[in-house]
Amino acid sequence: METVYKKSEMLTDATMHYCPGCTHGIAHKLIAESIVELGLMDNCIGVAPVGCAVFAYNYFNCDMQEAAHGRAPAVASAIKRVHKDVAVFSYQGDGDLASIGMAEIVHAATRGENITVIFINNAIYGMTGGQMAPTTLEGQKATTCIYGRQVRSENGEVINGNPVRVSELLATLDGPAYIERVMLTDPANVMKAKKAIKKAFEYQMAKKGFTFIEVMSGCPTNWYTSPVDALNFVKTQMTKKYPLGVFKDIGVEAK
Amino acid sequence: METVYKKSEMLTDATMHYCPGCTHGIAHKLIAESIVELGLMDNCIGVAPVGCAVFAYNYFNCDMQEAAHGRAPAVASAIKRVHKDVAVFSYQGDGDLASIGMAEIVHAATRGENITVIFINNAIYGMTGGQMAPTTLEGQKATTCIYGRQVRSENGEVINGNPVRVSELLATLDGPAYIERVMLTDPANVMKAKKAIKKAFEYQMAKKGFTFIEVMSGCPTNWYTSPVDALNFVKTQMTKKYPLGVFKDIGVEAK
Amino acid sequence: MSEKILMKGNEAIAEGAIRGGCRYFFGYPITPQNEIPEYMSWRIREVGGDYIQAESEVAAINMVYGAAGAGARVMTSSSSPGVSLKQEGISYICMAELPCVLINMTRSGPGLGGIQPSQGDYFQTVKGGGHGDYKMLTYAPSTVQEAVDILYDAFDKSDKYRVPVFILGDGLLGQIMEPVSFKPMKEMPNPSTKDFGTTGKHHGKERRIVNSLYIEPEICEPKNLQLQQKYKLLEQKEVKCEEYLCDDAEIIITGFGTVGRIIRTAIDDLRAKGVKVGMIRPITVFPFPGEVYKKYANKQSVKMFLDVELNAGQMIEDVKLNVEGKKRVEFLGKLGGYVISPEEIIEKIMEVIK
Amino acid sequence: MSEKILMKGNEAIAEGAIRGGCRYFFGYPITPQNEIPEYMSWRIREVGGDYIQAESEVAAINMVYGAAGAGARVMTSSSSPGVSLKQEGISYICMAELPCVLINMTRSGPGLGGIQPSQGDYFQTVKGGGHGDYKMLTYAPSTVQEAVDILYDAFDKSDKYRVPVFILGDGLLGQIMEPVSFKPMKEMPNPSTKDFGTTGKHHGKERRIVNSLYIEPEICEPKNLQLQQKYKLLEQKEVKCEEYLCDDAEIIITGFGTVGRIIRTAIDDLRAKGVKVGMIRPITVFPFPGEVYKKYANKQSVKMFLDVELNAGQMIEDVKLNVEGKKRVEFLGKLGGYVISPEEIIEKIMEVIK
Amino acid sequence: MEKVKVDFEACKGCGLCVMACPKKIMQISNKSNNKGYFVVECVDQDACVSCASCARMCPDSALEVSK
Amino acid sequence: MEKVKVDFEACKGCGLCVMACPKKIMQISNKSNNKGYFVVECVDQDACVSCASCARMCPDSALEVSK
Amino acid sequence: MESRIVISGFGGQGVLTIGKYIVYGGMNAEKEVSWMPSYGPEMRGGTASCSVVVSDRQVGSPIVTMADAVVVMNKPSLTKYLPKVKKGGTILINSSLIDIKADRQDINVVYVPANDLAAECGSARSANIVMFGAFIKKTNVITYENAVSVLKHSFEKKPSVLETVLKCFEKGFNLD
Amino acid sequence: MESRIVISGFGGQGVLTIGKYIVYGGMNAEKEVSWMPSYGPEMRGGTASCSVVVSDRQVGSPIVTMADAVVVMNKPSLTKYLPKVKKGGTILINSSLIDIKADRQDINVVYVPANDLAAECGSARSANIVMFGAFIKKTNVITYENAVSVLKHSFEKKPSVLETVLKCFEKGFNLD
Ligand SMILES: Cc1ncc(C[n+]2csc(CCOP(=O)(O)OP(=O)(O)O)c2C)c(N)n1
Ligand SMILES: Cc1ncc(C[n+]2csc(CCOP(=O)(O)OP(=O)(O)O)c2C)c(N)n1
Ligand code: SF4
Ligand code: SF4
Ligand code: SF4
Ligand code: SF4
Ligand code: SF4
Ligand code: SF4
Ligand SMILES: [Mg+2]
Ligand SMILES: [Mg+2]
Q: What are the DSSP calls for chain B, one per residue?
């Protein structure tokens, strides 16, 4: 019998601490598989965030640095400057990347650092127990907006404000070579996501500039749903605000 | 004889410390005049940045708060939450707003805070003596890129990276009601700039959301040019990277 | 005082602040203090205030600066790494002399460290985590009730001296549930009328400027001297300290915050064994109750001090500065998120009295 | 030692670092240290290194974390408000035990304050500006030459102990021009080969992980104890201190950094008047040369100490902790950006000996 | 021979593979593993077409598919 | 009567008004003020059309224009 | 008198709630009380536990390292907390889910098939209430009447549920 | 022997350069030296100044509060630094730009029409060199030969300029 699918050798044997059905695990696999397929296993440094993926350094089978909350792009930029031919990626959640780390991601992107950033948008602060994230949808409940996110009051005063579309924002910059938003809702989309991540690493190794994959994910625990319902929510609700697609692609030839 | 133009009463008698020909002074006048014309003289709080305009609190004839470097949007947001019907504006340079303060400006914008931000883009760190700013043009010299800003090396490695277009970036967000880029190069453009600033305050008072005017300015001192040449540089060079225009305008009716 | 209700420390502290007049809260999630912003996010709107989940701790502290400058009663809370990020803002607030309340539910450091209780941020808080010579009126409550009572009056104190009130708590204080009772809501205008706050309404009269820039030594020196004067005043007026069974004590055990309650148990048990121990527990760690230590350092009956902290030895420096070598000062520390037990203290005492 | 050349303190320090092996620099402009990043921006590429003008001090310190974790010799510099912003990152670096060199050309605080020289960040540096129990090997050079020599060896020291080397300077040290000579460039691989640095090349062998998370007390406590051990070792091995004319001194004047050179002038002038004064100048402020103070505190001939600082009294606590009440300790401070003059020190001495 | 192998200790019983399987042959069982999760099982190995959809969706790499 | 009045102590001699004036009647003079700046002057008040272009451009509000 | 108690199980088994019931009972009896959850980065499915202290004097440390009584609702909790029962103390073990025995002779070991008993009462999710009943009986930290009044008060607004709850409680209380 | 000197004027008048020439001269003479600029938020057109110390012993404070010699190139500098000249010290005043007199009897006051003399030499921008010449003559902080060699060294790469520079220097040195 021929093996069709098995655990990637780029992942360690450690059991992941993620909740049942949390798509952080899927995202990890896609990165791991891409690295293996591109032959980068022995040429790769990852940067873990502060967020549910804080222990990512236990799972990726390569050298890893754990960064301060939101600062992974700065850490990754510096690592890349030291090891210019090594694949460097950061892995960050929406609280980490889109809230506290907004300056760092924008500047790594505009500088055009040859790094790959995997952005897990699950519309919530997972690790700290479900507070509103910058990407929480209007109407969505979180522990710091228990009645659901409300943008403004009727008389125009700000309550929770609007969510941020990070891919669109970064696409206005000249540094990024490739930006795509994907989701992990079903096998077909998982495979698309994988393709995007792999392409991002390819661009990075070709020194085309900054690459960024926004991965829409579920957080069953803090959304108080089943894992399957969480993915349905991603598919039916999140895509309304965060449409899938390529937001920037300078092409294979460009430098 | 009828007075056609005189110093605005919204400006104090203090002599400004700006260098000869520095357009910070013009920008100050436009804000002052707009406030007077909208009858907001007794209903206005300004937030000064860290940058050459750090002493702005000495010049605007209203209550003022001096903010930490880059944090003026956070300070202004909080002031506005306390005094919901008072006009609140921040005044910030490109180092302040587009570098260290990137997270704060993006988040005040996406929340849609009812404040007006005047963004002085002079493509340099003026106050600290001419270091490269996030908006310094490719090829432009600064004390931290003495051979001229170079984005990447020939083999694709990042040197100084690309400049940021802030208005375009903020325009991807839902919170802003009005974003325009203007320049202070000649009387006609100064009048356009004034119109934009005034409109921003009008939108603010109508609680339409976040308003943002990017004012392209010269820094004769750190560009090592005459004031007149500085404005020529703005007109002929800066506009190539930073085109004038309205990047967002939700219109007068929208809420 | 109303009836006692069971409440988590973090939530009780938030409610205490509300009762004491807090009307603005700017925070960012971090364990173990999340219940404070979570509670505030809905509660503060009920009393006509406002809440922003800031984009970061840096933004949060600068929002505090903004709202405090605008005359409001405002608070923020965080835990160790988040508090480190606030240091620049805290220094600004102190120089601009803005009243506000700041909370650190300390966790174990350094770095990302752990999220269990720790007292590793004593130095940061009372010596100067931020730049320059500043101090904050800093309380280290031992129980939830004490914390609530301190919060209730914190805004008044803060307004009185135009100095931030800092609550140096830890994960234990934040996460414990204890019965607590609340005093009635303080009445006050919102934003409270303060004579320095920006309102936008002062044209014609003198403008109000909130600022921390004093660029020339000619003005920066007097400003600093004035601040130092104020800190002296705090030292005269605001010291708070618990002394427990010190009168006949041969050994004085000392510690701050939640360690105090553990010391108390140890003392009761030691007394039951006939060991004459007492406790000095600074309730304010700045101003530090140096005189109390001096008093006992000079007392014949006192043989030694034992300082107990959930860190590598921080407050012990302030203890020693006041004991001035007159008595031995021993240290018992606990690191990494472990909370010391009464048994460990008792064991240490038995060891040192041998 | 080559010929002496005239150079601004900031630039000389940058060159000293380059000679000592610095190959990466991440900075953000702030007065009075701008010449360091400016010099580095072109110079470091000449020696095969790299430079980023970071988007902020927060980014800069985290870039240091990244590059140091990747095995490089890396440095950053800033001044007071910027250093406050780095406190979280510094705490991370200390927990992850990453070698690097950090500089603070202190200006007057608190808040935006002023840009003139100050020593108001002593506490922040040596007690803990960031959260948790950590220490840095901290030098306070008095002259440009001394600074250059310290920088030359700073990376070696930092690598040896896996502890950041911190240079506590001030605006005076940064802005002064003095003649200085440089030692030849140290040879080393870039990035230098360190046994902990991430390289991406370790598959198969043990992975390298750079981390400051120790979530369980079970691992966080031993980690902290190990750090404390290391700091003890620094206290044993790395104390550096200048003693000047202390042998027969009746009054010991003490101060750190640039104040030391001013004290020296005062001492020479006082000696000329027949007043027996000497100086203790800690060159390392952590580890603090406590034993030196103890020695003179115990000496009959010494009548008192005078501590001189450009702040409201910070190092004086470390002085007192070692003098332990055995001798009087007087303080002479200067705030707000003024630099104290020898005359003021002389005047104070004449006043106290009356 | 099993086409789909479940690593019982790795499985967290999340059900994503159940959702993903086009043949509807994955089911959450009554068996709980050491961590207390009710693990998934393939109820009809023969029906499996080895498409690996289940395995691709599994966050915990608990599935191995052969053909 | 002067249509264009220059506040000599406010003027920094930057020349922006000179550039802006459609009538080319503003000129940097040889007179320096207390701060040492060579201040501007209007060399032909009669030619002035009171368009205020000069004043609008002046960063230091040193010009007052009447008609 | 001071009772130091640990209650531990999976998240979702209601272990924190048992702790709160005990604390409310303590308050009713005018004792000093404290309740302290373990808090950690454990995600859903991880272990949850709390320390409860009921005392005649002010509660010093609310963290229970050595317990007078321990309630364990799942296997990992038994392994973890068995060594932390004081000599002469009591451990209550949810034998519905824990198939191993407690290997200590110096303490009282009580096996409670809590899930099964709860299921018998028609409320599979109320195993924690059964445990609470058994705990009250075996430890006497609070009285029977007190415990019942706590439950009545807690389910004041859900009278339909209360009946089953009390049934579960009785099952536990009347065990063997 | 220690000479404590302040040189002050507008930014752009070359005052910092005068200070550096003195320092280089001091180094040539194997003295201890320091040069310290005033640094502040002043923008272009503001005042610039530096403190220079040339000494036989290690330089303590490089900041000159009371000066042995002061050079002022513009009016605001005269007002600011006149009171800071030590009794018996020297002040050199650029009388081309400063139309008032120094109102002190206890010091040596030297008026140098530096701009005019520089213009005479055909280099209006070299007023600072004229001042340097005058300073050397009046203070003797460094010798004539030393000063000339500093200038020669500084303009090594611009021999065309050097000639005028030396002319300006001589003008200043040979003043009255
Ligand atoms: C400076 C700092 N602030 C706050 C925290 C607390 N914290 C830990 S994880 C986290 C956010 C997690 O959310 P996200 O980045 O969306 O990741 P997720 O857990 O959802 O995957 C926060 C705020 C911290 N560790 N450090
Ligand atoms: C935290 C902090 N970092 C750095 C500085 C130093 N600083 C003062 S102004 C400034 C930048 C000024 O540039 P910009 O914002 O573009 O304003 P401009 O002077 O050009 O108007 C900097 C970096 C500071 N005061 N605080
Ligand atoms: S809390 Fe949410 S994001 Fe975190 S591991 Fe659980 S499901 Fe995933
Ligand atoms: S330095 Fe530049 S921006 Fe600053 S005042 Fe001078 S000209 Fe204007
Ligand atoms: S391989 Fe395909 S058919 Fe087989 S169990 Fe998995 S999803 Fe179903
Ligand atoms: S997807 Fe994986 S973890 Fe989830 S039920 Fe299937 S095998 Fe188990
Ligand atoms: S008002 Fe118009 S015409 Fe008159 S001086 Fe000014 S610019 Fe020239
Ligand atoms: S624009 Fe104003 S400052 Fe400039 S020269 Fe004209 S009047 Fe003078
Ligand atoms: Mg998230
Ligand atoms: Mg600028």
A: --EEE---TTB-SPPP-SPTT-THHHHHHHHHHHHHHTT-TTSEEEEE-SSGGGGGGGTBSSEEEEPPTT-HHHHHHHHHHHSTTSEEEEEEEHIIIIIITHHHHHHHHHHT-S-EEEEEE-SEETTTTSEE-TTPPTT--BTTBTT----B-TTS-BSS-PPP-HHHHHTTSSSEEEEEEEE-SSHHHHHHHHHHHHHHHHHHHTT--EEEEEEE---HHHHTS-HHHHHHHIIIIIHHHS--EEEEE-TTT--
